[in-house]
Amino acid sequence: MAYTIADLIPEYIRGLPAYIPGRPIEEVERELKIHAIKLASNENPIGPSPKAVEAVKNAVAESNRYPDGGTHLLRHKLARQHGVAMDQILMGLGSSEIIDLAARILLGPGKTGVTSQGSYAPFSLAIRASGAELVRVPQQDFAFDLRAIADAVVAHSGTRIVYLANPNNPTGTAFGMAELEGFVGRVPADVLVVLDEAYIHYAERADMPDSVQLFREHKNLLIMRTFSKVYGLAGLRVGYGIGDAPVLEAMNRLRTPFNLTGVSQAAAMAALDDAEHVHRSIRENAAERARLTKGLSELGLRPVRSHTNFIFIDIGPEAQELSDELLYEGVIVRPLGWMGFPEAMRVSVGVAQENDKLLLVMGRLLSKRAGKSEMASQ
User: Rounded distance, CA 78 to CA 72, Å?
Assistant: First the structure.
């Protein structure tokens, strides 16, 4: 029997769902012929640091040369910032590459990867793409149930990796230090705990974990950070991991050569030097997040308390339809059916004018819906 190349692709690869990115502003404006605002992808609405922009301009002049394949200067700077050794820092093409590499070094057929339902989709994709068994544990009140996740890890002897996000995307919830310490204490030392802290800068919990300190005590912890959020460099794809040197060495063998461009490295280096821009991003997000949460609540919606730069809203059965209506009004939000929440949407916190537009349009659409419902009941 003759096979095509497509027939020879493993079923666990062919059955993977594709990651669905938020729709670009340009695409929506071109299709609908309107001016749009994008509140769908959790980007920093005030943009990158001016220092990073200037560094990019200077670095472009050297684009005829290959970048530093070992990201030496950037890793050195991050190692000093976190108080770890340089060989405990791994640079990635965003956090996504690190998520994938962690699965590739540890998982395969006959192994198990564990994560939570309702969390960042690439966690599940990385586990499934390796051919391993995927175990997803239900949430409690839109938050990770760390006790249940630990139970699942212990119950599956083939577990080699568990993915957590703190704060979580897309629900915006966060767990504290005591919860994480208890979890890591229960997980066997031969299970890698991958902790995604993409939104850590925005969290307001007083007891947010000191994950780097916990890593010093538990070498099976791999911490992920990104320059895509508070640093405003989502378009340059820079992420990094803090972990045990032998683990990172194995991942380094599999990563794409020259995974970070010289432009990206220069921008990240400069962004680390601009503390004022980081503080401004955190400060303005906190103020607008509070204002947006209050406004959405006054419209009768159910926003979940957020520790991020986005807000998860428990809408109800009309979530997808309402998201589509917002889109046609030029407000791009994120319906969450594809992430396991068919009755919810996620709204990024924008600048004041963008949030004003969202509240205005949302209020108008909800009033229109209420009017139709009232007419139907008469």
Answer: 10
pTM, 2 dp: 0.93
Q: In the numeric block, which tokens belong to residue 160?
A: 């080699």
Instruction: Give dist(CA 272, CA 212) in Å, integer.
Output: 18
Query: What is the distance between the alpha carbons of residues 36 and 329, in angstroms, rounded to a whole number?
Result: 8
- Give the tens place of pLDDT for each residue, 354-366: 999 999 999 999 9
Distance CA(181)–CA(175), nearest Å, equals 11
The rounded distance, in Å, linking the Cα atoms of 225 and 278 is 14
Residue whose tokens read 């979580």: 168
Tokens of 74: 């950037």
In single-letter form, the type of residue at position 172 comes to G
CB 121 within 8 A of CB 339: yes
| Residue 244: φ, ψ to 5° | -65, 135
Q: Is the dihedral of CA 89, 55, 236, 330 positive or negative?
A: positive
Summarised one tens digit per residue, pLDDT across range 148-198 is 999 999 999 999 999 999 999 999 999 999 999 999 999 999 999 999 999
Closest C-alpha among 308, 273, 279, 274 to residue 293: 308
**Residue whose pair of structure tokens reads 């005590």 in the numeric block:** 217
Distance, in Å, from the CA atom of 230 to the CA atom of 279, rounded to the nearest integer, reads: 9
Confidence of residue 34 (pLDDT cuts 50, 70, 90): confident
Q: Average pLDDT, stretch 216-237?
A: 97
Chain CA centroid to CA 230, Å: 12
Angle at 278 between CA 44 and CA 282, to 5 degrees: 65
The amino acid present at 205, given as its one-letter code, is: R
- Residue 195 sits at φ, ψ, to 5 deg, of -110, 110
- Determine which helix (DSSP H) or strand (DSSP E) holds 99, and give its type and residue range: helix 94-106
Distance CA(130)–CA(16), nearest Å, equals 11
Average pLDDT of the segment spanning 103-123: 97
Confidence of residue 377 (pLDDT cuts 50, 70, 90): low
Strands 159-165, 112-116: pairing is parallel
